[in-house]
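Hi R.,

Here's the chain you asked about this morning:
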Amino acid sequence: MTSTGDMQQSSDGSWVRSRGLDLLCLLLLTAAVFLLFETSPRVGDFWWSDAARHAMDGVFYYDLFRSLPFAHLTSWAMDYYIQYPAVTILFYPPVFALIEAAFFSLLGVSHTTAQLTVSTFLLAASYGTYFMARLWLDRVASLSMALLFIGSPAVAFWGRQVMLEVPAFSFLIWGCYFFFRYSDSSRVRDLYIATALLLAACYTKQSVAFIVPVCALTLCLLYRNEIVRRKEVWWSALMFSVGVVPLTIFTWLWGGLNMKQVTGDKWADTSRTTLSGWFYVARQWPHQVGWVVLVLAVIYCVGAFLYKNWRLPNAVTVFFVGWLVVGYLFFALIALKLERYTIFLIFPLIFFAVLTLGRGLPAKLVPFATAVLGIGIFAHTLLTEHVPFVSGYRAAAEYVCSIAPPESVVLFSGRRDGSFIFNVRTLQDCRNLTVIRADKLLLSLRGNRFLFGVKDLGVTEQQFQQMLGQYGVRYVVAQPNFWSDLQSMQMVSRVLHRDQFKLLTTVPIIGDGEPDEAELEIYQNLSPAAQRRTSIQFDLPAFGLTIRGNIGTGK
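And the predicted structure, written out as tokens:
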């Protein structure tokens, strides 16, 4: 498996020209990723609820390293969560949030910076795709494949949200690139780099681990009996096994909710015992890559079966087929079915689609055809695929910050608490505000209420009003009719319509929200308590934790 980019490094300048052309391709990919970045939400208008939480996780680590409260880390973290209850560091692995924190330290804390972090990973993934494709394809086909990858509807969609899929994909692609470098040259350091990158991918999103048995199978096929004598293979296996132990412990201690999503329960829409459940992953492919790419990928699979000259080297074929088969089984067995979970399976499909043009067309037409395919798919996605957003939560945060005295307490009752809280944290005037979520006071939730249910804690109106006074709540931001089927949420609405509260303004919610998201109402509590520092306690059932701390500590 020799890279076409490394051939014929002669002294007549061809090597320099080759690297110059590679640089030109990378610049074109940079321009393409910039266009995707420019069309992404960046002004606090998060759409997917987890996106704002991933942004807040980065802020948590940013504030942690600025404060360095290692002598009292637990109490600091609890006080932080009380002030900004949208942090999910116990739910997700830490790598993306830590890198995001580094971006915040350089460029400031903002939605733009959070999205730039994801876009940087998208750029790295496009570069990795290009260089991996260069192991088997010419330069134009490799550039086209990279454009196909970032222009595929699934990657372009999630690459324009502050989510973990694209960062994990970037580590995965580069890990595979160095894995193939090792299989080609047996250079030990390449295998160690590949192992480190695949570990980083797992520490970004655990589900990427499906690729590990594929790598092991490929090495066994490549080296057969000789594999037992390769020390670097054993050291890499040990390195990965030891490296994954903290993640395993982390998942065991705090990932109970994640495990429930894998194992399933009555809430599962598609059963693993039905054909519908097993075909779920395949049904996502037409939207994830488009029918053109999918049909071309199928043609390659048929052509490679029928014609020997269509085939890749055996180890490469086993790797990419294994990527699809093992990945398909892995994601089909996960009970919670979401399209973004299966995004990692599209890479072989895109590779096969480009190979179809290279194998099936006359040599003179291949560069033109692959260029048209890559540029055409990217342009089509950029121009036609809608990027969802939901605005209004930043405007609500700006309004509250403009009128709230320092260290005020705000009660939030609504669907997108993470978006409101992130915007509160990123506005300069809001740095010492504390946000209390009404659902934390009134309900017991284990993640998504529609999947895992919700328990009403039975707080009475009198008790709720006492809480508002005890915690010194000055303002309330409420989404009308939010979870109005629950008695506690009905009670919140009744209390807000009493004389104790004055409706100050309403803020329209614009974009791709749920049908019941029309506006946010902002109320002033006319008789807040004067206490500055008050203790508070509430449970986090998803993690089996009780949060205890103080309101008004300020971070």
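The radius of gyration is 26 Å.

Let me know if you need anything else.
M.
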